[in-house]
Write a structure and sequence with these properties.
Low-confidence stretches: 1-7
Number of domains: 2
Mean pLDDT: 88
CATH architecture of the largest domain: Orthogonal Bundle
């Protein structure tokens, strides 16, 4: 019997349960994420320290740093967990929307505001990180997260196919305009504690102005 044949006949080794050390590390990670989510949402990102996160989680500062490289990495994981739920909702809804591209975009951003307004400070921290020049180049704040931008591009492409979006528009240019309007609308949450309907109303008007530029001529 050749070595290859003998190897092929060896039974697969079942993967055993996680070790105690792995389980403890995962439990620490979950506590840190939960503590950070609560503190970022009540005190803001800049107003929260690693020491406070550790204390709130009931772990040592050293344990936090063996799990996460920085406070921003914690924020990234907190937001990833939240955004997974948001984009799952968008993925479910967007393919079934009818009407003009402008109306589909309005619905998409309305879903976004309704989802995130429950944790305004947390999301404002994520937006603010987009403009933090001290972050490492591999970090993924909102500006580097392609999920929302890709969803907008898919919406625009559908509009081109249906004939209500000009077929020579620069998709990225429209995306940039919509994202800029979206971020600026969030100032209402920071300054006036605006709710989702108030922000949606303003964003609807902004989308109407932008849509006037991408309609077929």
């Amino acid at each position: 019997m050749t070595g290859r044949a003998a190897t092929a006949r060896l039974p697969a080794v079942a993967e055993g349960p996680p070790s105690l050390r792995q389980s403890q590390k995962e439990a620490t990670r979950n506590r840190v994420i939960e503590a950070a989510r609560e503190l970022f949402d009540t005190q803001g990102y800049q107003g929260t320290t690693i020491r406070e996160i550790a204390g709130h989680a009931g772990v040592s500062v050293g344990s936090v740093f063996t799990t996460f490289a920085s406070k921003y990495e914690i924020l990234s994981q907190v937001m990833q967990d939240r955004l997974d739920g948001l984009y799952a909702e968008l993925d479910r809804v967007m393919p079934h929307l009818r009407g003009a591209t402008m109306d589909r975009l309005r619905t998409m951003f309305a879903i976004h505001f309704a989802f995130e307004v429950r944790h305004k400070r947390l999301f404002l921290a994520y937006i603010a990180a987009t403009y933090d020049w001290t972050l490492p180049s591999l970090s993924t704040p909102m500006g580097r997260n392609r999920r929302l931008q890709d969803t907008i591009c898919e919406c625009l492409a559908k509009g081109v196919a249906e004939g209500d979006v000009h077929d020579e528009i620069d998709f990225q240019e429209i995306v940039d305009l919509l994202m800029a309007a979206y971020v600026w609308v969030y100032r209402l949450a920071a300054w006036n504690d605006a709710d989702a309907p108030a922000m949606t109303e303003v964003m609807d008007r902004q989308i109407g102005l932008i849509a006037a530029g991408f309609r077929p001529r």
